[in-house]
Amino acid sequence: MGKRFVLAITGATGSAFGMAVAKRLAASDHVDGLQLLLSPTGRRCLMDECHLSGEALAACSPKIQLLNERDLGAGISSGSHRHDGMAIVPCSAGTLGRIASGTSDNLICRAADVCLKERFPLVLCLRETPLNRIQLENMLRVHDAGAVVMPLMPGFYQHPDSLDDLFSTFATRVLDQLGIHEEDPRRWKG
Fold first, then answer.
1. Which residues are within 8 A (CB) of 134 and not within 5 positions of it... i.e. 6 or more apart?
2. Residue of 141, 124, 121, 99 lying closest to 14 (CA atoms)
3. How would you class 82 by CB atoms within 10 Å of its CB: exposed for 0-12, middle for 13-18, buried for 19 or more?
């Protein structure tokens, strides 16, 4: 039986990274399902930056199910709903702050809160710079609670030929944090 994941795209620039993670998870033979969440600003960034709606992204694969981020009654809002982890790519500083404070005012933050309390993998790909003290403290708080803080900092050692190379290489790293280890010719060889 394959794994099931949750992916959220929030309102920080870098939605192409989230799109790359969604497509890589959906294409993986190790993944049976992906529940996709978009914050209102995440929807706008996806459209502005990738010219893609959330519905169009979900239509890329039958494995992807688009959820309403306001539906606090969805399965992923409960610890009894089993899945294999969650990534927020990109994760806005506001979303980080709500997760760090335990504020579950939408399904994205509630699902992240469930991951922390149930010890499911939670990967937060923060997209913000420069960072203020509050954001740094919030990063430490979620780290200490069990999340992986993985800022959107792509590597250049693989000599990317395109932006898609950067997005895909970063997606490989996110999948690694979720326990999906796939071959990627761009991995560091030493």
1. 97
2. 124
3. exposed
pLDDT in tens, 180-190: 998 877 777 88
Scanning the structure block, which residue is given the tokens 């969440």?
37
Find the helix packing angle between 93-101 and 133-145, rounded to 10°. Answer: 50
Average model confidence (pLDDT) across the chain: 95
| Residue 159, CA distances (Å) to 14, 51, 111, 156, 186 in order | 20, 26, 36, 6, 9
Report the distance separating Cα 35 and Cα 99, nearest Å.
Answer: 19
For position 183, what pLDDT does the model report?
82
Taken in order of first residue, the domains within the chain and their CATH numbers are 3-177 (3.40.50.1950)
Q: Which of 158, 163, 85, 154 shows the shortest CA–CA distance to 124?
A: 85
Range 142-167 average pLDDT: 94
Q: Quote the pTM value.
A: 0.96
Residue 69's identity, in one-letter code, is E
Looking at residue 176, its pLDDT comes to 96
Element (H or E) spanning 168, and its range? helix 163-177
